[in-house]
Amino acid sequence: MRAFVIVCPHPFCCIVLHLANRFKQVVTQPIVTHGTVVAFDICVLLRVARLNIIQSNILLTGPSFQLLADVFREKILLLTATNFWGDYRLKATKTETAAAKSHRASIEACLKANFGLNRFTRIGSFGNGTNVSGYSDVDYLACIPTAQLTRTSTASLAKVRNALDTRFPTTGVAVNCPAVVVPFGDKKSEDTEIVVADYIKEEKGYKVYEIADCDNGWMEVSPDAHNAYVDYVDKQHGGKVKPLIRFIKAWKFYQGAKISSFYLEMRVAKYAADEKSIVYDIDVKNILQQLRDHELAMMQDPMGVSGYIYPCKTDALKTEALSKLNTAATRAEKARDATINGDIKLAFEWWGKLYYDKFPSYYL
Question: How far apart are CA 152 and CA 144, in angstroms?
């Protein structure tokens, strides 16, 4: 397999590098990547990849600057073969995934014994591959026979909560509308949320359910339709949209912004559907700007199932989230401006502030 990448090694400052709008260099060595090779404005990450390292034992042959170009190409391919910025590891670890699977059988068995089950399936960020390690919980849709549900959603959630609390008495089972939460550990990623659902109909080839609307009533949703939408947009961009969703969710989790993960996922997918390409640092900035400028406005379900999708549970939480969002958009803008001006150290500092010091540190 041969890989080709357009790069521009700058031999004197070893800082400015873009994968587009420059002259073409070709990697001649056969390589096998361990992930998707993605293109993005990479200059803020040069130090993370140690692109300033020069290998003195490489012979200077071929076109001008071949010595540095070879080093640059090797480092860039290693860096861009991941779907993360620098050292980020946003996706769930194998340990988290295994833990999530280990609890499924016992929860499913409990619900079957108490209510019967028409369907029990994983949904949410874990089910769609947009989860953030250490922060995203595991969500399951539990479709319970209508006869076992009550007219009010609050009472139905209470019934399920009581059954699960009897089965897992030491975990602290609680209602967190529209779900019942079973916390199996201290971390958010160890929580399992059960979304109680009633099957209603099939529309456009997707199953539609009613779940609690957090106002004692019910609302229609279709997790299958929403997952299909995100999958479609993600494939249109070569697998770059789900990592982009994780970047926005990571900001939310790190800064404690109480914005619905589902809302952010749909917002990012809708944004990406209208873009010709995805460049992570540029699009993170653009999305944060868009969310701020639209003041976290409710959005119409792009699949036409859920009606409107709301950003926050209460107006107070929305006001607090908008304050954090305004700060985030400003920091992303400053990071991009620093990148454009070639001040990589400053760019790192602003990205670090945006991601609560979890962005890789700049070093010489």
Answer: 14
